[in-house]
Amino acid sequence: MGRVVEERHGVGVPARVFTFFLRFWLRPLMRYVLFTPFGMRLWKALDPLCAVLVTPPGTRRAAVRFDGFGAEWIAGPGVEAMKGSGRVVLYLHGGGFVVGGLRTHRRMVARLSAASGAPALSVAYRQLPGTTLLGSIADCVTAYEFLLEEGYRADEIVIAGDSAGGFLTFAAALQAVLDGLPAPGGLVAMSPLTDLDHTDKLAHANLLLDPYIPGALLSELTPVLLGGIVLEPLHSPVNGALAALPPTLIHVGSTEILRVDAELMAGRLSDAGVPVTLVVWDRQPHVFQIFADFCREGLRSLEEMGAFIRDLPATGEKAA
């Protein structure tokens, strides 16, 4: 039990150049466009446009349809079974609960699948403005139940996600336990949002250092997410009954604003007796793994996550 904090020093020139450009084109879009009516429509076009992104050679996919949302199986290069028995990853994409989907994250999920040697079920849960936070969480729990019904043991399932998907990784696992389902075998979070109270983030030095997440965006996100409901502590996974959660791996960039949430969650998990490893990557942007073609450290990060998933112990317990 306990918390392990590791640092990965050094940042390559390509990552530095790419991060510089992120600050000057993506940050303004995030700050002034994302939550406007025009921005909501604009961002919804991103996922279809990302259909042009090429997955690694040897990747296989198969669509899955749920009531109200979709998903797809992804087997990265070298992964023999598209689905079946053994380890499986339930992947929840990021995008501020507004943007992103199967196509934006397909290339990264395929790489994670290959690194872990396990197929992944990538979930296109409902997002704003079509639902609230509770609707997004419900969809993720539904996908988790689907894997249990497909015959996977709970300890074989690893829930993983980035940013908003990192929030959902923790929230879905906590909600599943509240619903009487067994906890998954492990959790992996990249740059996760874990606390909807942004006071500490807005007072942190990384508020000015983050390459593309503006602090004002966080303040605007919470009321929209909750659909007018007054924020309560238990709306944030960091305040949940964390002792029920399995071993967890968190990766985050050293200068991003959500480092605050990553460190807070790691500390709370450790206090609850959950084995957790926090890896802080030198000057990497938010969810740098999705930019691995430019930030090559993202490939190393995905390999480390894959090793964590492979090495998780299996208890052999059947789902209830």
TrEMBL record:
Gene3D superfamilies: alpha/beta hydrolase (3.40.50.1820). Pfam families: Abhydrolase_3. SUPFAM superfamilies: alpha/beta-Hydrolases. One of its GO terms (molecular function) is hydrolase activity. The keyword Transmembrane helix does not apply. Keywords: Hydrolase. Residues 89-289 form the Alpha/beta hydrolase fold-3 domain. The active site is at S163. InterPro entries: AB_hydrolase_3, AB_hydrolase_fold, GDXG_lipolytic_enzyme, Lipase_GDXG_put_SER_AS. Belongs to the 'GDXG' lipolytic enzyme family. This is Alpha/beta hydrolase.
